[in-house]
Amino acid sequence: MINGVSGSQNGYPLVTGAEKSKNAINGESESPNEEDLGYKLSLSDKNWKTLGKKEELSEEDLRKVEELKKIDKRVHTHEQAHLSAAGSYASGGASYDYVTGPDGNRYANSGHVNIDTSREKTPEATIIKANIIQKAALAPADPSPADRQIAANAVKMAMDAQKEIAEKKKGSNTQDSPDAPDVTVSESS
Prior knowledge:
Layout: E1 7-9, E2 12-16, H1 17-25, E3 39-41, H2 45-52, H3 59-86, E4 95-100, E5 106-112, H4 123-137, H5 145-172
Antiparallel strand pairs: 1-2, 2-3, 4-5
Helix pairs in contact: 3-4, 4-5
C-alpha cells in the first residue's frame, strides 16, 4: 500500500484511505472501516460534468461506431458458438483482437478459440473427438474458411481412425468385441 498520496492529479482532488487512517490516529475520525483501506476519488460537480462531456461525433464517425458494434457482436457470437460446441476440447476461452473506435471504445474485430486437435489413445476415442471438433468448427452460422478447413481436417482424422479400426478387425479375424463401440464418422458440408 502506498501511504501519503493525496492532493490533486489532473486537477481532481484525491483522498486516500491512508490519509483518513492518519487522521484517525490524530483523533480526527473514528476507526477506519473497509472503505478506508483503498483510494477514493472525490470530484466536484464541475469536474463530474467535465468527465461526462464527450466530443460530438460526426455522422461518419457515428456510422463507424454502429458498424463496429455490429462486428463486435458478430465476433463474440461466432467465437461463443465454437467455445460451446468444443466442450472440454477447448483450450481456455475465446481470444479477441480489438480496434478502437472513433468514440474511444474498444470493439472486437476478430477472435479465435484454441481447440485440442490431437489424436486420442484409441481410434474409437479419436473418432468421437473428431466429430466434436468438426461440430465445433462448423457451429457458427457463418464458418470462416479456416473453420471449414479445421472441420475437413477433423473428418480426415476420423476417417483415418475408422481405417485403423477396420485394419485391426481384419487382422484379428474376429467379430465386434464388446470393447469396440460402433462409431460412425459424420460428414457435413
